[in-house]
Design goal:
Layout lengths: L3 E2 L4 E5 L6 E7 L9 H11 L16 E5 L1 E2 L2 E2 L4 E6 L21 H8 L15 H19 L2 E9 L2 E2 L10 H4 L9 H17 L5 E8 L13 H10 L4 E6 L10 H4 L3 E4 L2 E4 L7 E2 L2 E2 L4 E7 L9 E4 L5 E4 L10 H28 L7
Antiparallel strand pairs: 1-2, 2-3, 3-7, 4-7, 5-6, 8-9, 8-10, 10-16, 11-16, 12-13, 14-15, 17-18
Helix pairs in contact: 1-3, 1-8, 3-8, 6-8
C-alpha cells in the first residue's frame, strides 16, 4: 500500500494537511514495551510548526494521543493507533491555488493522477503527513535504544551555500543539536544560516539544505542481499520524506573521485573485534551493516510555496501570476531532523526483526 512502510514493523499513516486529524497505525510492535505519550511527544515537538521565528507561523501543539494497542502503559502486541489533531488550519488561504498549481509542488501531479486533490494545503503531499512517521519512529527508536543501545542523531549540515565545519558526529547528541533553532552544531555556521533563512522569510522566498545523520551501535549483519540492501531501504525511507531530492551513504558522490587504494576501508582489530580504519562505506558493505557507524545525508530542496509573484499557468493552460498565500517554512531542514531520525529508526528496527527471525531458525554456529 502506498501509505504503508515496513514489513515486520509496519506503519500506515493517514490524514491530510487540513483534515480533522493525522496519525499512524503501527502493526508488529512487540508486546510488553513500556509506552506512554511521553515517549512519543518530544520528537513531535521538535517537528511541530511554529516552534521558532524561522519556521511556518502555523501554530500546532501536535499533542499525540494513543487510541489503541496499550494498557496500563504497556504495549499489547496489537495494532497501535496514534492520532494528532489539526487545529490551526486555514483552508481559505488556498483559494487562489485551487485553479493554479504551485510551481515545483505536487498540486499538478496529484490532480493529473487522481482527477481530484486536497486543494486546501498540500493534502498527503504536505509535510503534515510526516507526523505519523515521527510518532511511529519514536517508538521504533525506543526499541532500538533499550534493546540494542542504538543511537540515531541528525543535524543540519548545510543551508544554501553555507556549510558546517568540524562536526564530531561520533559523540554528537540531540541536546547539542537543539542548542540553536537552525539545529546546526557548528555555531558559527548556524548564525549565518539563521540570518539567511530569516532574510528569505522576510522576502517571501525559500532555501534548501542538507540533513546529516549518524546511526551508532548497529550490530553487524543487518540488511538483506540484492533488493533489500540496508542502504536501499534507507534511501527509500529518506526519499519518501517531502521535499527530498538527494541521498548519500558514507562517502557518497565524493567517493567517485577517489581511487580504490584511497577509498577502501582497511580492516583492523578494535576492542577485540574486527573493525575498519576509515568509514567510507558508511557502515554498510554489500547492503549489510559492518558494525561501524552508519552515516548518511539527505538533500532537501527549497520549499515550493513562496509568496513572490511567479509567472505560470492555471490548470487550463492560461497564463497566470501566482502569489501564494498561507504559512509555510522558508527552509524545512531544521524541522526535518526528527523526520530523518524517525525514518532511519523505522528501517533499522524492521531490518533487525528480520535478522532476529533469521537467527532463530539458523543452524550455523555463532561467530
Amino acid at each position: 500500500m502506498s501509505s504503508s512502510f515496513g514489513n515486520l514493523f509496519r506503519v500506515t499513516t493517514f490524514g491530510e494537511s487540513h483534515c480533522k486529524a493525522v496519525g499512524v497505525v503501527i502493526d508488529g510492535c512487540p508486546p510488553g514495551l513500556s509506552l506512554t505519550t511521553e515517549d512519543i511527544q518530544p520528537q513531535l515537538t521538535r517537528r511541530r510548526p511554529g516552534q521558532s521565528a524561522l519556521s511556518t507561523d502555523r501554530q500546532e501543539a501536535d499533542k499525540v494521543i494513543i487510541l489503541s494497542g496499550t494498557e496500563n502503559g504497556k504495549t499489547l502486541g496489537t495494532p497501535i493507533c496514534l492520532q494528532v489533531a489539526n487545529k490551526d488550519h486555514r483552508p481559505a488561504d488556498y483559494g487562489d491555488m485551487r485553479d493554479i498549481p504551485r510551481p515545483s509542488h505536487a498540486d499538478y501531479t496529484y490532480q493529473m493522477k487522481y482527477g481530484i486533490r486536497a486543494s486546501s494545503g498540500g493534502g498527503r503531499s504536505s509535510a503534515r503527513e510526516t507526523i505519523g512517521s515521527v510518532a511511529s519512529g519514536a517508538i521504533a527508536a525506543k526499541i532500538l535504544r533499550e534493546r540494542y543501545a542504538i543511537e540515531i542523531v541528525g543535524w543540519v549540515s548545510s543551508v544554501g551555500q553555507i556549510d558546517s565545519q568540524g562536526i564530531d558526529s561520533a559523540t554528537l547528541t540531540r541536546e547539542v543539536v537543539d542548542q540553536n533553532i537552525i539545529r546546526c552544531p557548528d555555531h558559527a555556521a548556524a548564525i549565518k544560516m539563521e540570518k539567511l533563512v530569516a532574510q528569505l522569510k522576510e522576502e517571501g522566498d525559500s532555501v534548501g539544505g542538507i540533513v546529516s545523520c549518524i546511526i551508532r551501535n548497529v550490530p553487524v549483519g543487518i540488511g538483506e542481499p540484492t533488493f533489500e540492501k540496508l542502504e536501499a531501504k534507507l534511501a527509500q525511507a529518506m526519499l519518501a520524506i517531502p521535499a527530498t531530492k538527494a541521498f548519500e551513504i558514507g562517502s557518497g558522490f565524493a567517493g567517485t573521485r577517489q581511487k580504490g587504494s584511497e577509498h577502501n576501508d582497511l580492516f583492523i582489530m578494535k576492542d577485540g573485534k574486527i573493525g575498519t580504519v576509515t568509514n567510507n562505506s558508511g557502515g554498510i558493505q554489500g547492503g549489510i551493516s559492518n558494525g561501524e557507524h552508519i552515516t548518511l545525508r539527505v538533500g532537501f530542496k527549497p520549499p515550493a510555496t513562496i509568496s513572490l509573484p511567479q509567472k505560470t499557468v492555471d490548470f487550463n493552460g492560461v497564463s497566470a501570476v501566482l502569489e501564494a498565500k498561507g504559512r509555510h517554512d522558508p527552509c524545512v531542514v531544521p524541522r526535518a531532523i526528527p523526520i530523518v531520525e524517525s525514518m532511519a529508526a523505522l528501517v533499522i528496527v524492521d531490518m533487525l526483526m528480520h535478522q532476529e527471525a533469521r537467527n532463530a531458525f539458523n543452524y550455523r554456529e555463532p561467530v
